[in-house]
Amino acid sequence: MKKILITGGAGYIGSHTAVSLLEAGFEPIIVDNFSNSNKSVLKGLKAILGRDIACYEGDCNERGLMELIFAENQFSGVIHFAAFKAVGESTQFPLKYYANNIDSLLILLETMAKFGVKDLVFSSSCTVYGQPDELPVSESTPRKEAESPYGNSKKICEDILRDYINSGVDSRIISLRYFNPVGAHPSGEIGELPLGIPNNLVPFITQSAAGIRQQLTVFGDDYNTPDGSCVRDYIHVMDLADAHVKALEFLFRQNLNFYDIFNVGTGKGNTVLEVIKTFEKVSKKALNYKIGPRRPGDIEKVWANTHKINSELGWMAKYSLEDSLRDSWNWQQKLGLRE
Ligand code: UFG
Predict the structure, then answer these.
(1) Which DSSP string do the residues of 71-138 spell out, in sequence order?
(2) 58, 65 in Cβ contact below 8 A?
(3) Which helix (DSSP H) or strand (DSSP E) does residue 27 occupy?
(4) Where is average pLDDT lowest: 97-101, 185-189, 235-239, 293-297?
(5) Using one digit for the tens of pLDDT, what is the confidence trace for 198-226?
(6) From atom 35 of ligand 1, which residue's Cα is the shortest distance away?
(7) Considering only CA atoms, which of 235, 234, 197 is closest in space to residue 214?
(8) What is the dihedral of CA 321, 323, 326, 328, to 10 degrees?
(9) Which CATH superfamily is domain 3-182+234-266 in?
């Protein structure tokens, strides 16, 4: 079995990708410092897969650790998820974000080169588009100035990867620009585990429905959208996980010295109020919510043009928004039973 290193593999997207990789016949190996994840994820993976997944505990910024991991394993490829991702926190601690997100990529690229590992899938974000001038937004749309140090760190990492390939190295790299990941594994064994008060919409919704949060606030209903609330492209995390497998398999078929970028979204936009109504329908629970002021830095509307990933990687989102919210709610309920 081809071994694939998943940095940040205990995190939300990484853990679901471990499932998809194993099911596609790869051997996932995780490295994670558990700074924003919990060891219970490994138990969840075992419950789904019926076996343990190898996991190194440690920081991708530690070159010595990364070299040890590469020396112990002959990897066929790497998926680099490990990063800090809280937009608000990044504006308070920009150096922390730049150091962590950029250094870990540099160390990873150098370690891959040293050990002759050629294939990399990198986690980027639709945040690099800012508020696009045209919708749906495609990969060729010029990126805008980043709204946050977090967003800028993703933009810089994309540039590093492009420059690295332009230098003529024998590597093959894809950046995946994720839209808004939601949902959980349908088993409810793994899902998103936000620390403290969630910043993101869906965890806040499920925690409100579970009685952990008193009231959900809709950040603005005076945007230029069908019902005034912001529009996003919500993609089920299992679809997103599958896109990583497709990206890796695609890379293995390319000539060396290759770089490309793909949007990973459903191609459909939904407003915040539509997400709330859909959640109420699938959970049969009424949400306590109010309309509040706009959240600073929010983009009014963004959704993906998915033509490139559909045609070149043969990948298409399979899950609906209803499926995503049902799985998020199932996960939240199982989490409640566990505690
Ligand atoms: N929202 C609310 N109430 C909440 C939380 C969110 O109304 O309590 C709204 C937001 O205003 C936004 C939408 O729900 O309109 C989605 O917000 P999220 O915070 O879930 O997601 P964002 O689109 O703001 O951010 C996500 C990722 C970021 C990434 C960004 C752009 O969380 O990491 O997409 O790619 F930078």
Answers:
(1) HH--EEEEEE------HHHHHH-HHHHHHHHHHHHHHHHHHHHHTT--EEEEEEEGGGG-S-SSSSB-
(2) yes
(3) strand 27-32
(4) 293-297
(5) 999 999 999 999 999 999 999 999 999 99
(6) 127
(7) 197
(8) -70
(9) NAD(P)-binding Rossmann-like Domain (3.40.50.720)
**Helix and strand element counts for the chain (H, E):** 11, 13
Give the Å distance between the CA of 128 and the centre of ligand 1.
14
pLDDT in tens, 263-280: 999 999 999 999 999 999
pLDDT at 339: 62
* Mean pLDDT, the chain, integer: 97
Q: Which of 150, 201, 206 to mutate to test the pocket of ligand 1 (most atoms within 8 A of CB)?
A: 201
What is the three-class DSSP state of 241? helix
Query: Which string of DSSP letters, residue by residue, matches 201-216?
Result: HHHHHHHHHTTSSS-E
Q: Tell me the pTM.
A: 0.97
Q: In angstroms, what is the span from residue 44 Cα to ligand 1's centroid?
A: 26
- CB 24: neighbour CB atoms within 10 A? 17
What is the model's pLDDT at position 147?
Answer: 87
